[in-house]
Request: fold
Amino acid sequence: MSQIKRLNVVNIEMEIMGIYEKKSETASLFSEVARTCFCFLLLAFGSDSVAIEEPKYQLITSEKPFEIRLYEDYIIAETSLEGSFDSASRGGFRRVASYIFGGNKNLEGRSEKIQMTAPVTVSPVGENWLLHFVMPRNYSVTDLPEPNDSRILIKKIPEHLAGIISFSGWTTQRTIDEKTSKLLKWLDSLGYQSAGPQQISRYNDPFTLPWLRRNEIIFEIKKKSDE
Reply:
């Protein structure tokens, strides 16, 4: 899979991003979005790593823009949020970003920074949203630092089969609904059905031009005959 080149930058104080600041009730939407954009930029460029890691998988079927993948197991840091898709995306991103930027305690009792990965994924569950980052493969569940924020949970996702549709542009509700419908119809034509909630995965920072953006709708799937 392609790797996204990253740059080395000087360390920037966490207070600049407002990650550890209590959100003011009178904060404007503009300032909220601006803080989130700062988070994306610092995560994308604030590591010594040369590439952004993604979950490993084996490609089973490809009929662009659709794919079926067999994912290896991986670990996530996940949090639950209320509100709209956009507000949950912003709030969840900042919350989990605070964890990987050092809002944690490792086995030695110290704060530890964790490398950023891709994608950032949001899933609707009931009336809430779940947002997660995938953790780097060099960690296990037991040696990942413990989050300072109890709303962040560490989970291991087992190996699974997934159906995907890829697209560029913005992840508006209309686009999400349209792409989801196309993906489910394609999966049905191959004898598959969803076996888990919809996942909306995004790979880029907010400043990436729409036609260069990489987004995916993902469903864990199973054969209809497996019922």
